[in-house]
Amino acid sequence: MRTSIRVSLTIIIMVSVAVFGIGCQTKGDEIAANTLVSDHQITLHMLHWIGTEAGPVVSEINERFHKEYPNITIQVEYAPVDQYQSIIRSRFVAGGAPDILGVFPGTWQEPFAEAGYLMDLSGGSWASRLQDHAKAMMSTGGKLYAMPVNRNAIGVLYDKKYFKEKGLTPPSHWDAFLSLCEQIKQDGRIPMSLGMKDQWVTQVIPYAMAPSAIYRNNPDFDRNMYEGKATFSNSSWREMLEDYIDLRVKGYFNEDILGVTYDQMVQMLATGQTAMMIMGNWSLGPITLTNPDAEIGMFPLPYVKGDNVVWLSSGVSIGLGASSSTVYPDEVRKYIDFWSRPDINALFLERTKSYPVFKDVWPSIDPAQQELEPAFQVGTYPFLDQNWPPAVQDTLFHVIQKLMVDGEGYTIDKALSELDLAYKQNIASMKDVP
């Protein structure tokens, strides 16, 4: 998911500058022999969307990198996730691309790779260490134009203290989930927080529904869409959107969902204003920062009937790539290689409370992540946009916002037609068949 997910309303510039001189190194000879590229001082520019969820740990990684490569400074610029694509595209077109950049997994990268904007990283020593699903999702035309960094999952984050106090337990099917929401509502607490002012949030609930509603029984649905054998209009998407709207109609969300930001919806759960939130594990860190005493659990959204098996929405979330036009290709590769080191990748995963994509990285994980882990063994499907043509995800943002506005006269039929049109108009740009 261009998930990642994780938004600031303005572009934040964070410059990671460390003033470590060679004279103050305790292992000066070893570092000079093994890490210095040259004595020439250079700055690598990096543009990414992960400022909210990972800004502090990125700064720490950059400081560690600078200790080993004192002649290289990393300057980082963060952009809102739902604006990132247009920003990076304009930089490439204008000839001002950063040396290092965030790359979304899946089809997002295809037009950038085809235009020659991205450096081919297929020869990286880290490639052989990737889990198969991560390597497949980050590959385009058989090549790797970015290194996957982590894996995330979407589920229901819930206030464990409140659940214990009220004798509540995670439900196993949709009717039980609706009953749980009603019980919480009758108790005087808002069942779930939702903030659609940040457009990317609109997609999260359908993403959590789809693995169980569609892909568990029809894992080839995306291929069928590509081949013209399936559509949004004639699929479970209709019921999914109906049930999504029904959650609002029943009063299971906070008021003014279109005026609430992602940060605010996280704060609502962290401070006990709501009991649950359908979101990714990337929210666990911000919740802890807001309220260190919060006890948060996580279970897969049980969008099934009866005792049917629940599938989890989970996929590669963050990619790290490079511009093919960088004047410092060797230094850029060293930086990406540095991120692939087991100790550095584990540090990132632990701070962002996310899951590994390397076979040899085993980070310590949060209790909420541990609670969700068994769901990975049942069945998962990647974040949906990773197999969609460009523009479909943005269309989803807009149609859901329209559906959530009372009195607009905007129908589910219209929404599904717009999604089908966006898919049809952009399918030719897909380089790899889902």
Structural features, described:
- With 434 residues, this protein is an alpha/beta fold.
- It folds into 2 domains: 2-151 and 316-365, 3-Layer(aba) Sandwich (D-Maltodextrin-Binding Protein, domain 2); 153-314 and 370-429, 3-Layer(aba) Sandwich (D-Maltodextrin-Binding Protein, domain 2), CATH 3.40.190.10.
- It contains 17 helices and 12 strands.
- The strands form 2 sheets. Strands 1, 2, 3, 4, 7, 8, 9, 10, 11 and 12 form a 10-stranded mixed sheet that branches.
- Helix 2 (51-68) runs antiparallel to helix 14, helix 11 (262-270) crosses helix 12 (284-290) and helix 16 runs antiparallel to helix 17.
- It is globular and about 65 Å long.
- It starts with 11 loop residues before the first strand and ends in an 8-residue tail after the last helix.
